[in-house]
Amino acid sequence: MKIRLTIALVLCLALVGVYVRGQQFGVQPAKLNIVKVKDDLYVLRNDFVPGNVTALITNEGVVLVDDKFEVDHENVLALLKTVTSQPVKYVINTHHHADHSGGNAKLQTLGAQVVTSERARQLMIDGGQTGLPAVTFTHRAFVRLGGKDVELYYFGRAHTSGDVFAYFPAQRTLAAGDAFTFGAATPQLVDYAGGGSAKEWTATLDRALQLDFDTVVPGHGDVTTRAELRTFRDSTLAMRTRVHEMLVQKRTRDEIAAVLKSEFQGAQLVFPGALDGLLVELQ
After folding, report:
1. Burial, 139: exposed, middle or buried (Cβ in 10 Å; 0-12, 13-18, 19+)?
2. pLDDT over 90 (residue 5)
3. Is 3.60.15.10 the CATH number for 2-230?
4. Which residues of 64-92 are buried (b: 16+ CB within 10 A; e: fewer)?
């Protein structure tokens, strides 16, 4: 168990490194594979980072949810060509981190329209990112292409303050971005600098769980089920409840950090200032 937790924490540190720095510091193109979710819905993924890409195929073009790093652009297009000859018409960014939005600029040069929440766009501006979305929304939006629908929702703060959920009603599938990561190496991670919130995360997932879906595409990890999203939701509540209890008990910062490492795979210890932000938020 200790070995698994150590590996998980090391991988989380690697994850945050690419979140923050991206290809600026020599990230290499990921080795991608494609997973068929439905006849017209695919996920382009890799072992760890960058984040997952969901592709809805229509007879008028492709709708992508996230687009990995800029350095992955050619591989993403090559893999898409194995399932469709249609061009990418829309890119929906689930949030601002470069491993989910780094391909925006190159796809825009090919005519794609980028869509995200208004808050995520502002975080991109604050971070000096390229490929800014021309279309934003505050609560709910729709993308319709080739007779197929994607519903976009902003339910509140979670991993960041701009997290978007993309819902495919006909496919009964939800693309959750990093509001849900699945697997031992990707625990709940709050980016406080990006406006995330451990306290609000649970309620945000509760709102997402009101949608009617069976399948979930996490921001990182394998395609999974509604039940796993529910389990993850419960873990967000357990983590913040545990931390609040320790704060009431006047446990030290180091003691709380040790419990997070041992019980929650190092959640909150990875992003710069995350542990301090958590302790302030849950006082």
Report:
1. exposed
2. no
3. yes
4. bbbbbbbbbbebbbebbeeebebebbbbb
Q: How high is the pLDDT of residue 187?
A: 63
Task: Please state the domain extents for the chain.
Answer: 2-230
Distance CA 178, CA 195 (A): 13
Q: Is the pLDDT of residue 81 over 80?
A: yes
Instruction: Give residue 183's pLDDT band: very low, low, confident or very high (50, 70, 90).
Output: confident
Q: Using the CB atoms, write b or e for 248-263: b if 16+ within 10 Å.
A: eeeeeeeebbebbbee
Higher confidence at residue 189 or residue 147? 147
Angle at 168 between CA 167 and CA 174, to 5 degrees: 50
User: What amino acid is encoded at 103 in this protein?
Assistant: G
- Give the Cα separation of 143 and 181 in Å (integer): 24
